Amino acid sequence: MLRAGLGTRFIDVAAVLNVQADHLGLKGVETLEQLAQVKRIPIEVAKDTAVLNADDPHCLKMAGYSEARFVCYVTLNQSHALVREHIRAGGRAVVLEEGVNGQMITIFDRGAHIPLLWTHLIPATLEGRAMHNVQNAMFAAALAFSMGVKLEDIRHGLRTFDTTFFQAPGRMNVFDEHPFKVIVDYGHNAPAIDAMCRLVERLEPRGRRLVVVAAPGDRRDEDIREIAKTCAGRFDHYICRRDDRSRGRGHDEVPKLLEAGLRECGVPAERISVVPEEVDAVASVLEMARPDDLLLIFADQTSRTWKQVINFRSGHDVPVERTPAPVPVADTLPPGPALGDLGSLVRDERGVRLAREPEEAD
């Protein structure tokens, strides 16, 4: 919006999920309050419904600037006092309720109480463990309901959407066909990093926890240190890298800042590796992995990184494109590994196995 404006003249339903310390220092936005002013513009012009995160104080304040017919609050806290008062007055809300069978996403509207779906039935939540995607599902439900989508269609959408690379590239893509588990995510700010770290903790891996972490070069030094602080103490080994585009930073400036931030938080030097290039950092963590380990890779070039992960074979050199081809992901196949022995396997970008047909003997 700062670069090109709102992009549309009319909005029926608008939502703001959070106001976090990301992109600060860009285009004159220096504080969270200023960022909230920018983010609330769609809320100010929405005509039908403003969907707001009641758990974020900056979002909550936006209700006072809305002229929409309805305000729909979204909260993970079923005891939220303001939301309870709003519901009792006939208002609309989407609330995460504790039930006998787990956590239920529930819609309240004009006095109606509508249980929508158990969170563990939503594939994108990894059986309810990925709380950030539970919240995302709640916002998706609030937006769809406010736009008049039928309840069964909302349930069907939540039940059939997954975080595979095919459906959501770079968003919590899980690959578990190696002896270890790999999660690839595009998280690039402290709140996103924290959400993924919390997921790793909830998954309770039996082996070690390894992470490849980075930060965009145009973020402030304090934002990069905050990313390091968010990761610190949660992994057994840290590989610090940079993005392909340094955005004005030196070759290893970002990974060095991350390393310094980790050291300041008490992480021993021997548990930190600085590997500036993304391709090399991903290769390093894959070679380091042992059975039952969990690898969390924060990726910049997600398509290239996903190809590295699914084509990885320990002890083998697999050709990797260091510059991604500028074509849609869905229309390409990854550069296959050296096929070597008859009967070896390659995989497409969704992780689907493609068996190589054995050649006839000469």
Descriptive account of the structure:
Strand 4 and strand 5 form a beta hairpin. The N and C termini lie far apart (64 Å). With 362 residues, the chain is of the alpha/beta class. The protein has helices at 32-39, 41-45, 57-61, 81-88, 131-146, 151-160, 190-203, 221-231, 253-264, 278-288, 302-310, and strands spanning 11-16, 46-53, 70-75, 92-99, 102-109, 112-118, 173-175, 181-185, 209-213, 237-240, 272-274, 294-298, 345-347, 353-355. Helix 5 packs antiparallel against helix 6 (151-160). It contains 11 helices and 14 strands. It has 2 domains: 11-160, Mur-like, catalytic domain (UDP-N-acetylmuramoyl-L-alanine:D-glutamate ligase, 3-Layer(aba) Sandwich), CATH 3.40.1190.10; 173-355, Alpha-Beta Complex (Protein-Tyrosine Phosphatase, Chain A), CATH 3.90.190. The strands form 3 sheets. The chain has a 6-stranded mixed beta sheet with strand order 1-2-3-4-5-6, sandwiched between helices. Strands 7-8-12-9-10-11 form a 6-stranded mixed beta sheet, sandwiched between helices. The protein is 30% helix and 20% strand.
- Could you name the ranges where pLDDT drops below 50 across 5 or more consecutive residues? 325-347, 353-362
User: What is the CA-based Rg, rounded?
Assistant: 22 Å
Element string (H = helix, E = strand)? EHHEHEHEEEHHEEHEHEHEHEHEE
Which CATH C-level class of the largest domain is it?
Alpha Beta
Helix segment tally: 11
DSSP E strands, number:
14
Tally of separate domains? 2
Strand count, sense and barrel status of the largest sheet are: 6 strands, mixed
Work out the helicity level: 25-40%
CATH superfamily placement of the largest domain? Mur ligase, C-terminal domain
% residues in beta strands: 15-25%
CATH topology term of the largest domain: Protein-Tyrosine Phosphatase, Chain A
What spatial order of strands do you see in the largest sheet? 1-2-3-4-5-6
Distance between the termini: 64 Å
Q: Which architecture of the largest domain would the CATH scheme give at its second level?
A: Alpha-Beta Complex
Structural class, from helix and strand content? alpha/beta
Mean pLDDT score = 87
CA-based shape: globular
